[in-house]
Amino acid sequence: MQHLLNLFAAIALLVWGTYTVRTGILRIMGEDLRRVLRRNADNRLTAMAAGLAVTSLVQSSTATCLIVASFVGQGLISTGAGLAVMLGADMGTALMAVVFSFDLSWLSPLLIVTGVILFTSKQASTAGRVGRVLIGLGLITLALHLIMAATRPLVASPVMQNLLAAMPNEVLLDIVVGAVLTVLSYSSLAIVLLSATLASAGILPVNVALGLVIGANIGSGLLAVFSTSKAGPLERRVPMGNLAFKLTGGLLAVVAMPWLPDILHAVGPVMPEPLGIVVSFHLLFNVTLALLMIGIAPLIGRWLEGWLQPPPVNPPANRPRHLDPTALATPSLAISCAAREALHQADVVETMLRGIVPVIRHNDLSLSEHLRKSDDTVDELYSAIKFYLTQISREALSETEGRRWADIVSFTINMEQVGDIIERVLLDIEDKKIRKGRNFSDAGMAEICHMHERLVSNLRLGMSVFLDGDLRAAQKLLEEKANFRELEHEYAATHLMRLQDNTPESIATSSLHLDLISELKRINSHICSIAYPILEAAGALSKTRLKAPEVVPG
Fold it and tell me: What's the rounded Cα separation, in Å, for the pair 177 and 175?
């Protein structure tokens, strides 16, 4: 029983090690990996090479598939190019299986010790994140060594030998078991390495291990399909095409099973048998599949584009458009989705803001009611963005991405508060002006229109600052806060002068006029708050606006 428990613990360590390496690499190079995939997707061969390189680093073809699926969903690359990337990604995982199949037990202590030193001493820096990756690599090599050690007593057990002798020689059953194990462990690499190690220890016959490897490849395709099951049809194209490739390869491998041992024995001497046979088969499976499918990838892509069509109507305005659940596995990609949705929320706020003046000019109660209902949309988008951000693993975010996460939260809070203020403003206009049949004086209306025009311009500038993070634009936005405050004081003073002159319209709308310019200033303050994170990061903010006290001569 103890030996079996040791085996399960070693398997769990293997799965954890692959997860640690994947999240560590994504945290260090998330944006760079996305950039490599996007820039090399124009040509099928370079797309396949990019997929191979990225997946060799990430050690997860599923993670690469989710990134590529999101690119296809956003229209950044074609479906055919995405499928070519995935053919390279599958070869990348196969190459990493070959690397880890060598005896690296001597390297494990060095990787773990070095990784722990880097991670504990400089946890928040790039060096600390590299340490996390080294720890994961060390755990993988250590787990493989522990699996070998735990299986030796099991192989010697008469019970185990009798059980192996009684196992049915059913390749389809082996494939199903391999696929299920891959889905449960979220790692085809871990299952391939486990199958090879158990075959090397004599626990599994070679033909059973080969069936498990076929199942692991199909399981990795199923993982991506399951992960994108709730996404739109555009995002599901690449996972579905990749799964079709895997099923085709599995079918060909089952047909060729009688001849496989002879083919693999020619490659096996590179490493000990049967370990070399199993790992070589995994590499041969994916290389052969890539060579067979790269030529028809564009054709399959066009077929998928015709089959999985986007919905003919646009989603309602109150529904999130960019919060792709499949991107959550790739934090850098999820941050970009949240930022795009925050801009969608700001667009709704801008529509509300622009509608204030038409409501005042035309006493339009129906428009006012429609705009007030838009605040519910702003609130719903805020809740959706906030929930989406909480699902992003903060541990997998780099320092820059962590700041961006906080910036998005701050931006959406400000937009939600601006929406609430606009709703109150519209209610005041309805109650104090429209229903009472009152009008602003020409001078008062001109002041409101001027402040409103400046406010819309500042909102557009604030959205640009949020999107680009430009320091000069942020400084200009903060300057507008002081300018707007002075403008409010000036217009409040001129309104009081009109009251002294007994202007009838000004007297009737005095309370609404003063409240309105005050609320517009409050909206502007929330908009200008967008600049603070950029200015603070650049060290361009002073601690206080208070003047230093004058020194009184003694």
Answer: 5
pLDDT in tens, 404-416: 888 999 999 999 9
Distances (CA, A) of 155 to 8, 143, 171, 192, 204: 15, 18, 22, 20, 10
- Give pLDDT, residue 414: 92
Q: Based on the number of CB atoms within 10 Å of its own CB, is 208 exposed (0-12), middle (13-18) or buried (19 or more)?
A: buried
Report the phi/psi class of residue 310: left, alpha or beta, with left for phi > 0 and alpha for psi in -120 to 50: beta
> Could you tell me the two tokens for 498?
């009109």
Q: For 427, what's the count of Cα atoms within 13 Å in the CB-facing half-sphere?
A: 10
pLDDT in tens, 331-388: 777 888 888 899 999 999 999 999 999 998 888 889 999 999 999 999 999 999 999 8
Residue-wise pLDDT for 257-306, tens only, equals 877 766 666 654 445 567 778 888 888 898 989 899 888 888 988 898 88
Report the chain's C-alpha Rg in angstroms: 31
**Looking at residue 546, what is its pLDDT?**
47
CB 502 within 8 A of CB 441: no
Q: Residue 168: its pLDDT value, please?
A: 58
Which two three-digit tokens encode residue 521?
């200033």
pTM: 0.60
Pull the structure tokens for residue 27. 């945290």
Structure tokens at 406: 């906080």
How far CA 100 is from CA of 26, 54, 175, 435, in Å, comes to: 20, 17, 22, 77
- Residue 43 φ/ψ, nearest 5 degrees: -110, 140
Phi, psi of 42 (to 5 degrees): -70, -35
Q: Is the pLDDT of residue 503 over 80?
A: no
Report how far residue 143's alpha carbon sits from residue 135's, in angstroms, rounded to the nearest whole number: 12
Asked if 114 and 158 touch (Cβ cutoff 8 Å), the reply is: no
Burial of 52 (0-12, 13-18, 19+ CB in 10 A): buried
Q: Round to whole Å and give the CA distance between 315 and 341.
A: 13
Helix segments in 40-106, DSSP class H: 44-58, 61-73, 79-101
Task: Measure the CA–CA gap between 49 and 44, rounded to whole angstroms.
Answer: 9
Name which of 250, 256, 182 is nearest 220 in CA terms.
182
d(CA 194, CA 79): 33
Whether the Cβ atoms of residue 404 and residue 335 lie closer than 8 Å to each other: yes
What is the overall mean pLDDT for the chain?
80
Q: In Å, what is the CA distance from 209 to each residue of 190, 203, 257?
A: 13, 10, 12
Q: Are 133 and 28 in contact (CB under 8 A)?
A: yes
Cis preceding linkage at 158, omega within 30? no
- Residue 552's CB is within 10 A of a number of other CB atoms, namely 5
For residue 493, give both structure tokens.
């003073």
